[in-house]
């Protein structure tokens, strides 16, 4: 799932149409390696430009996602604001065959003189970087500084000169004819066409090489390249050249059986068979947004809240171990009836037993056969005291059983609650949401309050979706908001959705007083699908979702945030669909 040089070439063309000539109005640094530049200009020029140097998701594209602004901007962000704020984007350049893009800005320095600065995005896996340069190529700073200890070939340090990475001995698709390209691939063919393409052609990703091989060999083995296969190779390479040159591409994402994004490309992909499916997008920016959004949100949340993840996972594991031990004790309590029977048998045969006996042989009148059983005795006790000792053990186990059942139920309820917090944490996308979750854990005694008590953190409103039938669906971002949605905001005639026995958000379908039976089935299905997607089972193939009128929901006294009980519910079985959520979410 690499963003290759061909896709970057098309992206640069897309960006030239959308933001070239725009001025920077805002600069946000979402995390250590991610930036968002907001540009605006005349007419339809403008948008939010997303740049990422993350090793697992380096890229540049226009985004329609809403990203929260971190409370404290990092130093690199402050540097960019100092030099680039108000700057006009005048050019977007890509060195031939490289996964590198130069964004050239006309700016003003501290004394008002016109200067040209370049922001360079390098898309090179773990070596990805974002670098700010002066017009003569001097490095002002970078998201990742690279010194001699990290690379003896190429350093990225302030005041140093910027140089391109060492060139590879490969052919750029747009600089050679399809015949030259095909001959070069054939010359390196050793029985593996995919490998030959990767070794020969510059700027292609493994998925593109796989598509070339799939077309040329028709999905079969390829011991040697026949003349017919060479013709097909030339034709396909020519088609790729035409697509990249004209910009008339087909942005495509491949989804696996669980509807999770697996790969993407600028062209249609046919190499993946069942159970994979493909989805096409109008622009490359929308394709990359759809592919990376869920993964990015989880990555950023995990980065900023590693301590909370550690706390929750550790607490859940400890409680699970304790509950397991309690269940084992409860299993042992099942033997208590045998103790009561022994007490009864001893009580009925006191006249046959003498003090000092170690075993009593008595008739078991509870058995139809009436066999003789041996009951161990304490020789220090009288026969009556031995009987009472068995009764005492019996009563103790009865009491233990009651307490163990209560403790197990309490432990399971706490696990459910902590899993709901964990689920909210995996979907948190901003500092404000993390602050609310931290506050909730403080309120419940899992975290100590840092410093003096102050105002409680402000919380963004719930996620809002507009269904195809016009109904509005509200989804809570965390347990605190789930409570507000269900117990305060929702009307009694609204409909509540939640995954069955699985941690997830509360979803409220606003009906405006409309009768339950009058609401279209599609609205129920879409609401249940969105609720399933915003849950711990968001990657599952099929999820059961409970739904009922809000008037049937009750919040037990003393229950933890987000915990409710309900009655008279229905259940729907749906498949989580992040793409549906993105399409229906109100921006």
Write a brief structural summary.
The chain is α+β, with helices and mostly antiparallel strands and 587 residues long.
Structural notes for this entry:
The strands form seven sheets. This protein has a six-stranded antiparallel sheet with strand order 17-18-20-19-21-24. Strands 5-6-7-8-9 form a five-stranded antiparallel sheet, with helices on one face. The chain has helices at residues 5-19, 75-84, 178-187, 193-200, 206-217, 227-246, 284-304, 306-332, 336-348, 383-426, 431-443, 479-489, 521-533, 578-584; strands spanning 23-31, 34-40, 46-52, 59-63, 88-93, 100-108, 114-122, 129-133, 139-142, 171-172, 201-202, 252-255, 261-265, 277-280, 359-363, 372-376, 463-466, 472-475, 495-499, 507-510, 543-549, 553-554, 565-566, 570-574. It is elongated. The chain is built from 14 helices and 24 strands.
